Structures are given as structure tokens and as C-alpha cells.
Amino acid sequence: MRNRHERGTLSSSMADNLARQIEDGLLPAGAKLPSIREYAEAAGCSKNTVISAFDNLTAKGLIEPRRGSGFFVARRVKATDEIDEPSTLDRAMDIVWLMREQLQVKPDVLNLGEGFPPVEWLEETRLDQYHQRVVRTGVASLFRYGSRYGYLPLRQSLQQKLAGYEIDASPSQIVLAHGANQAMDLVLRYFVRPGDTVLVDDPGYYPLFGKLRLSGANIVGVPRDVDGPDIGKLEAHLVTYRPKLFFTQSVGHNPTATDTSAAKAHRILQLAERHDLTIVEDDALADLRPRSLTRIATLDQLRRTIYIGSFAKSVSAALRVGFLACNPALASDLADVKMLTHVSSSEYCERTLDAIISDGHFLRHTNRLQEKLRRATGAAITALTRLNAEIYRPCDQSLYLWASLPGWSDSMKLAAALIEHGVILAPGAVFSPTGEQVSAYCRFNVAYLADKRFAAALNACA
Predict the structure, then answer these.
(1) pLDDT at residue 382 above 60?
(2) How far is 193 from 365, CA to CA, in rounded Å?
(3) Given this structure, which CATH class describes domain 133-360?
(4) C-alpha to C-alpha distance for 30 and 25, rounded to whole angstroms
(5) What is the DSSP letter of 258?
(6) What is d(CA 17, CA 36) in angstroms, rounded to the nearest whole number?
(7) Which stretch of DSSP H or E encloses residue 71?
(8) DSSP string spanning 182-236?
(9) 20 to 30 Å CA-CA from 225: which of 2, 108, 382, 391?
(10) Is 314 helix (H, G, I), strand (E, B) or coil?
(11) Cβ atoms of residues 219 and 200 within 8 Å
(12) pLDDT per residue as tens digits for the range 311-334
């Protein structure tokens, strides 16, 4: 019997071979693939090996399952088919552009601006194996709207997860949402009116800036130092603008890979108390970083903090399950906002996630994920060092690195040059609250930086 490593290697090889055949046109769009059983017999391997290969290709958008009929080569949408979509080169590199790039699957393009870990790092969670477990329990509830707070057993599991960060939160303080982004939307709908000032990290999480503009908010950035927000600027903004909210990332900050120090976290809380400020702490990368790092919500115990979490980076973005935790009265109000705007979140997805994270395998999965990230971060730093890049904060373990390359003072121009060579960057201006600031920095996904196509494209642009 083949061991797990051998099966994984064979599965990857099989997926790569089929991908080449599809890219070369040997397997045209709409072509039906042989059955899993036929592939397994022909290759002399187990059905699970073939299933894993097919799952890989499905995730990349190369093939698609059709119920009762098998697997077929997916129709590949060409740029000329997108009548209402201008060419990437013709689009301004703004928030919407980068978000669209994150959502597209382009096997022939090296996307160094990718926001997620590679699919193969996450596919071992095998979402398919949890379906039967979900439908066997409480099947009747799957045909109705769920609780306004979300699926109770998952909130109880999240209570334990937060306890691991020394955050004491009862299930009544936790509201489930369609990902961390919906959790942010609920907060904005509740707190923000047109003209209100909201403070954000600068640079910071670019989709948040788009949401704030839609809300009519006045966005003011707090510069990000290597150890967290600039306290002097934060205090000055609090005096000048009297904002209601400050959105920040304390751990694994996107895009700079910085962590807020304990000293700064304490100072932020002191200022929040003095100026009646609510802190919204986005911890979307929690499963990729050590538990021991300082979180403002741990120091504050959710009195002035709204903690937002997600599993998009550690399980699957497709499940669309996130959550927020805060004081009980506010949690009830935010659950009402959720009910009014979306009725409920998906109990099916919440049950699936609960089955995954309550399984002992999940801890092993996140440990392996962090180990892969440590290796990739080391390789990425080596690759950037060879290119004489300036890394804002070198670290041992981070999904992103914030770095500038010699000879390119404007990363927008660099991104425009590299895209013609099949390399996509996430230029620094996209992460600016105003979008107008010229930046030499780019956000790089460490999982792809060692790819030789990057250096080759860079040399071609020199």
C-alpha cells in the first residue's frame, strides 16, 4: 500500500499532467474525463489518489463535476469573451482591480499579490468528507433560517478558540457572519453615518477602505510602524476628529507583516478609554501566527474591542464563515443588524466549519500550515535578498512580506511593467486609505516569491 506522501506525489503528478493536456488543447473545453475508477485502474493507484487530483483541478477551475455525469473540462473564459470587462492593462490598479485579480484563476500567471495560501496547503482539510456528518445531524434545520447569532455549537467551539488567546467570551458574545468582511459590514452599518470619521491602519486592509467609502465615511489613516500603529499620530487624530472607530490588525498585519507590541496595545487602550473610542481588531490571520502574540482584545476583554475572526486563510474562503466577538449588549444589537440585512448566515457552512475545527485533525492541520509558512517565509526572504530588496520587517513566519525593489520608487509603475510579463503584484498605493500616495512597497505572498519567473520578469523590465 502506498504511504500518504507517495499518494500525494502521485496525485500532484496526475493533476499536473491533466492540467498540461488542458492547457495544450489536447483536452478541449467540454470534454468528458474518464471515470475515477477508470483512471485509478489505468494508473494502478487508489481512487482516493484520483479524487485528490480531480479536487485539485476543480479548485483551479480547470475541470468541473456534473452531478450524475462525471467530470468535464471547464470552459475557459477568454479576455475577448468579457465584453463588459476592460483589459487588466487598461484598468486602474485600484481596490476593485486587486479584488478582481484575487477572485480569478489564471494558471499561466504568477500572482505575487495573491491574498491566500496555495490551494494545496489547504486541500488536506478535505471539505467533502464532512458533508455526510453535517446532514446526518439536525437535517431538518438545514431547510430553515438559523439563529440570528449563528449556529450555537460553532459559537461554543469559537468560545474555546478565543480562550486559547485568553479572551473570555460566552456564546452570547459571538455573532457568526458570511466571512470577516460581512462582520465588518455589520459594524459599519451600526456605527457609521455619512461624514463620520473612521481611523484605519495606513497602509491597511484595502477592502475595508472600499466599504468605508460606500458608507460615506471620512477615512483617516494611522501610520503603521514596525511595532504597530504610530501612537503620536493616533492621539492627534483622536483629538482632531473625535472618531467612533479604529480598525486595526494587531497580529500579522496585512500588508506589512508587523505585530503590535504589548506596550503599544496598552497605550491604544488607554487612549480609547480617554476618547470614547471603539477598537475593531481584525485577526483574520490568527491560525497562521503564534497564539502567544499580543491581541488588544486579550488586554481589554471585549469591553472597548470588537474582535473579528475568519477561517478563509486556514480552511476555505469558499465556506464564507467568519465571526465577531464583543460585549453582550452590542453583540445582540449587531445580531439584529445581521437579521435585518441578511436574515441569517449559512447554517450549513457553519455546521461544516464546526465539524472541521472540532476535529482533532484541525490542530494538526494548522500546525503543518504554520510550518509550511515558516519554510516559505525563509525562502521568500532569501529570494528578495538576492534581488537587493528592502524588506520592511523580516520575520520568521508570515503570509505576506512588505518590500521595495531597487530602481522602482513607484510600485504602480513596477506592477504595470511586470503584468506584461505574466507577473501580478499588489502595489503599495492600493493599501493606502487615500489611494493617492506613491509607494515603493508591494505586498508579496511568500508562497510564490521563490518562483524563478519573478526574477526573470524583473530582469526583462530592467
Answers:
(1) yes
(2) 42
(3) alpha beta
(4) 11
(5) -
(6) 15
(7) strand 70-73
(8) HHHHHHHHHH--TT-EEEEEES--HHHHHHHHHTT-EEEEEEEETTEE-HHHHHH
(9) 382
(10) coil
(11) yes
(12) 999 998 888 999 999 999 999 999
β-strand partners of 154: none
| pLDDT class of 28 with cuts at 50, 70, 90 | confident
SS (HEC) of 116-154 = CCCHHHHHHHCHHHHHHHHHHCCHHHHHCCCCCCCCHHH
Q: Chain-centre distance of CA 131, in angstroms? A: 23
Q: Would you say how long the chain is, in residues?
A: 462
Q: What cell numbers appear for 147 in the block?
A: 439563529
3-state SS class at 72: strand
Delimiting residues of CATH 3.40.640.10 domain(s) in the chain: 133-360
pLDDT in tens, 85-101: 444 433 444 555 555 65
Do residues 394 and 410 touch, judged by C-beta distance below 8 A? no
What's residue 145's pLDDT? 77
CB 130 within 8 A of CB 355: yes
Residue 295: pLDDT over 90: yes
Instruction: Give yes or no for a cis peptide into 34 (omega within 30° of 0).
Output: no
pLDDT at 72: 87
Answer CATH for 4-73 from 3.90.25.10, 3.30.450.20, 1.10.730.10, 1.10.10.10:
1.10.10.10
Least confident of 105-109, 374-378, 417-421: 105-109
Q: How far apart are CA 450 and CA 462, in angstroms?
A: 19
Question: pTM for the complete prediction?
Answer: 0.78
Q: Is the pLDDT of residue 344 over 50?
A: yes
Question: Where on the phi/psi map is residue 61: left (φ > 0), alpha (ψ -120 to 50), or beta?
Answer: left
Residue 379's SS3 state is helix
Tens-digit pLDDT profile for residues 239-265: 999 999 999 999 999 999 999 999 999
Fold type of domain 80-123+363-461: Aspartate Aminotransferase, domain 1 (3.90.1150)
Q: Which three cell numbers stand for residue 393?
A: 520587517
Task: Quote the CA–CA distance of 235 and 356 in Å, as a whole number.
Answer: 42
Cα–chain center distance at 185? 16
Q: What is the largest CA-CA distance in the chain?
A: 71
Q: 352 and 146 in contact (C-beta within 8 Å)?
A: no
